[in-house]
Amino acid sequence: MTEQIILNAETRERTGTNKAREIRNIDGMVPAIVYGDDKETLNIKLKLNELTKASQNELFYTQVLLIKSENNEEKVVLKELQKDPAKGKFLHADFQRVSSKTKLKVVIPVNFVNEEDCVGVKVDGGVVAKTIREIEIMCLAGNIPESIDIDIENLNLGSSIRLTEISLPEGSEIPGLTEETDQMVVSVNAPKAVEEDPILEEALEDDVVSESEATSDIDSEEASSSDESSSAENSEESKSNVQPLYYWIR
Fold first, then answer.
1. What was the pLDDT predicted at 14?
2. Cα–Cα distance between 241 and 23 in angstroms, integer?
3. DSSP 171
4. Dist. CA 214–CA 34, nearest whole Å
5. End-to-end CA distance of the chain
6. Residue 208: in which H helix or E strand, if any?
């Protein structure tokens, strides 16, 4: 089991936009609230560097967190985390109290198991297509899974696994899932045929045409030259065959 993420907090009396700005700029902390479970809302502030480090763990967004403030401890889940779009710094955080019996909607990542041993890939040469990589489920706060594992070792070519076929942790369900809303999660498909690049063939054809044209041009030039030579020879012969005409004057 993954170690629980703990955040150390301080209570704050200052509220409002200006006070929140002071907490961020002067104290170097992030204002936050803890609410729910029919208890009074608790105003707290968290260290910016500690919150930033925790946020880099993907479980921060899906698992139950522990917030410690003075002599108080709260089991919570993150509901909202506001960030400055320009600077990227956290502005405010909202946490909801939970108990082991609290039901929550959480988005859980899908973990595909034994992908390298998938029959449809190793035997039939297929390709794994992952359609869904995370699933929203409803579960108890004390039983939130880190991931939803789907074993695809025995998945054959042309076969698939749908949402209704997934095994969920006890007490968990996918909200609104029916036969009409069922979706494919993963499948093994035949590889797409790779088409040959027609450019090479076209280029070869162009080269052949160019060579033919060049040959034709050479032949035409030779024929033209031959014709010119022949004409010249005929002209010379005509000149040599001309007999002088003599007029006798009586």
1. 65
2. 121
3. T
4. 85
5. 144
6. helix 198-240
Give residue-wise pLDDT tens across range 30-55. Answer: 999 999 988 899 999 999 999 999 99
d(CA 54, CA 159): 40
Residue in 69, 70, 63, 93 with CA at minimum distance from that of residue 3: 63
Count CB neighbours of 94 within 10 A: 16
Q: In the structure encoding, which two tokens stand for residue 156, read together?
A: 């054959």
pLDDT recorded at residue 209: 53
Class of domain 104-189: mainly beta
**38, amino acid identity:** D
pTM above 0.70, yes or no: no
The ranges assigned to domains in the chain are: 6-98, 104-189, 195-223
* Percentages of the chain per state (helix, strand, coil), in multiples of 5: 30, 35, 35
C-alpha–C-alpha distance, residues 130 and 106, integer Å: 20
The neighbouring-strand residues paired with 247 are none
Would you identify the CATH topology of the domain 6-98? Ribosomal Protein L25; Chain P (2.40.240)
pLDDT tens per residue, range 156-180: 999 999 999 999 988 899 999 999 9
Mean pLDDT of the chain: 82
Asked whether the beta carbons of 190 and 157 are under 8 A apart, the reply is: yes
